[in-house]
Amino acid sequence: MNQADVGKLMSQLRISIQARKRNLKNPKGEEGRLLKLRKTVTALLKHERIELYYNRADEARGYAELLISNAIRYGDRHKATMELADFWLLEKQLVHKLFKVFVPRFENTSVSYTRMYAAPRDYPGMYYKKSVLELRGNPYPSLTRDYSHNRSFLHNILLDEARKDYKREKFAEVADKHGAQTTEDKHKKPETQSQAPEITA
Asked: Which letter, b or e, does each residue of 58-87 get, where b requires 16 or more Cβ atoms within 10 Å of its Cβ?
């Protein structure tokens, strides 16, 4: 399959993922390069998060998206989809995981099935861009920071002010109750003293 045919296949995806042919050097030539991509797609569906070099991750991402998209679209009774899964997945038990786990997870999603993040490079050593490729909904902790608790966000500032207003109202209610109770006690004390009998020795 040449690059033009791959581009046609990619255009049928629900999510737009560019098909880029990277220069993945391999002593076995194109066959070894394709085997490397098959191993990458297999590892991605098996572990759901992998760390690798950027060029291979960027290209394998498109094939993983294509595989999951076809599995969702045609199901496990479609011959061409089963052949595609059989080709890309070197571990055959992952075919069941594709249709039983990933298809229900992604069938109603409107975003890409994969995410890719930049990873820190090894230092010292050769500079090669590294990345983390993962499937959405994986069981691992998130790689992105949760900024929802940032104090300078507008919604957090508004919530803080609303919380302060609520506390002021509650303190005012408690102070009013306490003030009313003390005035009642002051009025009651003289009456009780006048009613009490005097004890003379």
From this structure: bbbbbbbbbbbbbbbeeeeeeeebbebbee
For residue 72, what are its two tokens?
Answer: 């969702």
The answer to whether residue 85 is domain-embedded is: yes
| Same domain, yes or no: 55 and 152 | no
Asked if the structure places residue 194 within a domain, the reply is: no
CA atoms within 13 A on the CB side of 122: 6
Q: Are residues 37 and 95 in the same domain?
A: yes
Amino acid sitting at position 113: Y
In a shared domain, residues 158 and 121: no
Instruction: Specify the DSSP class assigned to residue 122.
Output: P
Tell me the pTM: 0.63
* Residue 72 counted as domain residue: yes
Question: What pLDDT digit, counting tens, does each position of 66-109 carry?
Answer: 999 999 999 999 999 999 999 999 999 999 999 999 999 999 99
